[in-house]
Structure formats: C-alpha cells, structure tokens
Amino acid sequence: MTQIYKTGIDVGSTTVKLVVFDENFKLIFSRYERHFSDVKAATIKVFKDFIEEHGDLNLELAITGSGGMGLAEVIDVPFVQEVIASSITIEKFIPQTDVMIELGGEDAKMTFFDNGTQELRMNGTCAGGTGAFIDQMAALLKVDANGVNELAKNYEKLYPIASRCGVFAKTDVQPLLNEGVRREDIAASIFQAVVNQTIAGLASGRKIKGSVAFLGGPLFFMSELRKRFIETLDLKEENIIFPENPQLFVAMGAALYEETSQKTATDLIHSLENDDSDSLIPQDTMDKLFENQAELDEFRTRHAKATANYKNLSEHHGAAFLGIDAGSTTTKVVLIDDEGNILYDHYGSNNGEPLESVINILKDVYAKLPADVYIAKSTVTGYGEHLIKAGLHVDYGEVETMAHYKAADYFNPGVDFILDIGGQDMKAMRIRDGALSSIQLNEACSSGCGSFIETFAHSLKHDVREFSQKALLAEHPVNLGSRCTVFMNSKVKQVQKEGATVGDISAGLSYSVIKNALYKVIKVKRPE
User: Fold this and answer.
1) Is 497 among the domain residues?
2) Cβ contacts of residue 148 below 8 Å, gap of 6+?
3) 57-67 residue pLDDT tens
C-alpha cells in the first residue's frame, strides 16, 4: 500500500511555509521561505527542495494563509482558514494553552481558550507591531530583523516608541538616533513597542493569564521579542509555552485538516509552472491621472494662477518678515517683504531635529541678508511651534490651521474649504463667514501623508520630487487601496512582480492619498 504523507502549505503575507508529516505525525520536512510577493515561485522552490530530499512522494494536502486562496485554486486543493488551522495544531500538540499570541508578517492574533470555546482577536487595517513593522524599523537601524534581535540582547534602557504606525514610529526612532541613543536600546524599545501594541490592541483590557503560547515567525526567530512579552506579562516559567516549530503551526494545521486532496509534488509543481490563470495575478488598475501632456499643461496653468511672486533678496532694502513652519517631518521657511514677495524660501527634511534644522536655515538667511535689511517680525507655526518660539525667541506663534487659512484666503479670497496634507497629518478645514467652522484630522493612522509617500519613494530608490513626477503620465496606475504603510508595502511588492512601473506605483499612491483624505479625514459616506 502506497504511503500518503499529510502536507500543509501556509502562504502568509511575506512567507511560504511547507510541512510534511509521516503516518505517525512526525515532521519529516519543513521549509520557511520568504516569497517577496512572488508566491508561485516560492511555492515551486519549497516543493523542489522537498523532492530533492525525499523524492516525489504522494501527498495529502490543504492550503491556508492570507495569500493561500488563490494558490488553492491554481493547484486545486482545499483551503482552510488560518485561524482554524492554528487551532487544530494547538489542540493536538499543546492542548494546555489558555492564550495564544501569534505574530506574522502583517498580522497579529490573540486567541483565548476557555472551556472548549475560543475567542479570536486580530489586527484590522493597521499592521503596526507585526513582522513587517519590525523590518521597517530594522532599516532605520541599518540591520535586518535578526540584527535588531542581536542588538536588543545588550540593551540598558527602554524608550517610548509608537507601534501603532510605521510612519509615526519612524519619527520616534529617528530623533533617538540623532541624539546618539544606543542602537541596542532602540532595538529593545522597538520590541517593547510591538508588545505594547499587541497587548493594548488585541487584549483590550482582558487579562492574559494561564498558559500562554507564543507562535509565528517573529516570535520564533526573535528571542528578545519573546523576552519582552514574558517580562511585560510577568509570566512564570511554568506558564510559558514555546513549542517546537511555532513558526509552522498554521501550516501544520492545514496538514492535519480533515478535507484534503491527494497529489504528488511533481503534479503540484507542474500545475504552478503551467498556470496561465489570473488567480495569482490581480489586474486592478485605475484611470490615468492625466491623459496626455496637454491635459497636464492645462492643469498646471490653472494652478499657477495662485503662485507667489519672488524678489531677489540682494535687491531688497529695509524690513523683511520671517515665517517658519516647523512640521512633523519638514521645515519650511520664507522671508517676505511688505508686499508679500518672497525674498528667500526653504523646504527640506528636519531629519528628526526641528530646532537644529531651523537654526541652520537661519544661519543661511543671515549670511545672505544685505546690510540694510533687517527682520522686522517673525512668526512660527506647526508641530514645533512652541519649541522654536522658546528656543529662538520668535516674536509670535500661530496655530497652523489659522496660518493655513490666512495664506489660502490671501491667494483665493473667500476660500471656504482647505485640505492640508502634511508629513504625518491631514486636515480638512471648512470656513464660514470668514472663520474656521470645522476642522477634521486623521487619527491614529498616518497613511497617505507626506512621510508615507516619502517611505515608498525611498524604497524605490527615488527622491520624492522625482517620484511624484513619474506619476503624472503613468499608463496604468495600480489600485493600492488606502491601508497603512506596512500593508501597502506588501501590495507594492506584489504589483512590481506583475510588471508595474515606478510611475504606475506612484500614480497608485496618489490615488491612495486622496482616498485616505476622503474616507478617513473628510469621512465621505458615498463615493459619488
């Protein structure tokens, strides 16, 4: 009688896992492979690895995971929801579990087991505090995720870091680096941020007690992340469950699932290599931003009507007026005359040092200031208003919403709506009878803001200006949705595999920015 080997495939957001059991449920083969958004190629590779080690055996398999449904259609095998798969494995191998904490590439789950019942909680539209979040933070430390773990082993002090959003966290981490904080301390603080996000976001006040199992790739590969969980939850040794192969538990559940399909590894590889369906290739594109150069030129001409006038600083005499916008990620400075002509301007990143940034710009201003020109008045606005005003004795501080309104009304008298997209915030302002009547802001998520766009531009090896220019006449803007940076990072990788150009991605992100403004800030109920 031919032996059948129970097999499970887990296609996650960032990895493909393959497990094969013999008839005694002994694990004879396993692979954990990053797919870099090319699920098909990664799956073929792990099956070829299996054949190389064990030959072309008969497999009885099922598929699970957030990216597994399309693959299940291609190779014609049953799909099992990953929560069910995980529960199957827990019940078979670690039935004493009271609480399961699992971190994946872009998801986080917590399951409470109570007298035969299960209560599952998982992250929604924010992937802060997951494996991909750690990858993003690792890039700031110029190491990989395992490098973060090695650094964290020698930490001395923890610092508060936002884990709700990769963009916000970046702004917490960069100043720490600029201040010379030990990278070891930052690494451990990143892990602590993940712990805080998981407990606050998923437990939501429910006490985590009893035997706690730690599952998923990040918790398997990063010992210091586990340690931060254990210390934060104050778990005793007997309550810690760290099973063998926790990174494979979901795949193991698929292998143990009752409904399976029998195939050989060669059959599966053949199905994947000869697949010409759209199951793994989403073709989701949108209209071009501009149909042609003429339409773009018309747009630019229309918007150029509100352009400020410039005047050479060397030709100016007497009083000048200084305006500073100390934003969350950038510093903007203008020097104008009494007629509103711009004598000097600057727009650049603050590199996490708003005060230092303004000081350097002002040094440049004074170096270029003619002998008979003086700064009569100065005003600061933005995130760093109070810091800059106190540190540099600026004359006035102005709330940025009022600064926006005054400038908008200057260029467009009678303006009644203003949309501002900043480094980490969005504001929608309505004006009635010459006064601000309502202000709506983005909340915990900073997707669609300036730093969000900058992150993708840099990941594609472009600066922001060049990146945005490529969007204007892109042929096939891709639909990237309006989710957070971490989720969208995976989506971008996916469309790259489909042949999307940098321009297509940039144009898609442009759509995403507006969707975020409409749905998350203005909160439009109906698209029309």
Assistant:
1) yes
2) 134, 137, 138, 141, 187, 190, 191, 222
3) 999 999 998 77
* Beta strands at 4-11 and 417-421: parallel, antiparallel or unpaired: unpaired
**Angstrom distance (rounded) from CA 395 to CA 3:** 83
Encoded tokens for 235: 């778990």
Q: Are residues 430 and 479 located together in one domain of the fold?
A: no
Residues 401 and 511 in one domain: no
For residue 394, the SS3 value is coil
Q: State which of 129-133, 334-338, 440-444 shows the largest mean pLDDT.
A: 334-338
Going by the DSSP 8-state scheme, the letter that residue 98 receives in this structure is: S
Residues 123 and 268 occupy one common structural domain: no
Q: Which two tokens stand for residue 468?
A: 């945005």
Check if the beta carbon of residue 469 is closer than 8 Å to that of residue 462: no
Asked whether the predicted pLDDT for residue 455 surpasses 80, the reply is no
- Per-residue pLDDT at 279: 56
Question: Band of the pLDDT at 367, cuts 50, 70, 90?
Answer: very high
CA atoms 305, 307, 312, 318: torsion sign: positive
List, as one string, the DSSP characters of 453-503: HHHHHHHTT--HHHHHHHHTT-SS-B--TT--HHHHHHHHHHHHHTT--HH
Q: What is the CATH number of the domain that holds 429?
A: 3.30.420.40
Could you tell me if residue 526 is inside a domain? no
Is 283 within a domain? no
Domain boundary among 426, 441, 456: 441
User: 């199992």: which residue's tokens?
Assistant: 213
**Given this model, what pLDDT does residue 121 score?**
86
Question: Residue for token digits 């030129």?
Answer: 297
For residues 351-379, average pLDDT: 92
CA gap 389, 360 in Å, rounded? 15
Is the model's pLDDT at 517 over the cut of 90? no
| Amino acid at site 341 | N
Which residues make Cβ contacts (< 8 Å) with residue 387, sequence separation at least 6? 326, 354, 355
| Residue 1 scores a pLDDT above 70 | no
> What is the span of the domain harbouring residue 501?
293-303+445-521
Q: For residue 258, report the phi and psi dihedrals to the nearest 5 degrees.
A: -65, -40
Confidence at residue 214, expressed as pLDDT on a 0 to 100 scale: 95
Task: Give residue 36's pLDDT.
Answer: 66
Spatial distance between the Cα atoms of 69 and 275, rounded to a whole number of angstroms: 15
Are residues 262 and 136 part of one domain? no
Measured CA to CA, the distance from residue 145 to residue 132 in angstroms comes to 9
pLDDT tens readout for residues 116-155: 788 888 876 565 667 778 887 887 788 888 999 999 999 9
DSSP string, 55-90: -S-EEEEEEESTTHHHHHHHHT--B--HHHHHHHHH
Task: Tell me the range of 89-93, 480-484, 502-506 where mean pLDDT is highest.
Answer: 89-93
Examine the domain organization and report whether 405 and 380 are in the same domain.
Answer: yes
Provide φ and ψ at 270, rounded to 5°.
-60, -45
Residue 186 belongs to some domain of the structure: yes
> How many domains does the chain fold into?
4
In this structure, the answer to whether residues 239 and 97 fall within a common structural domain is yes
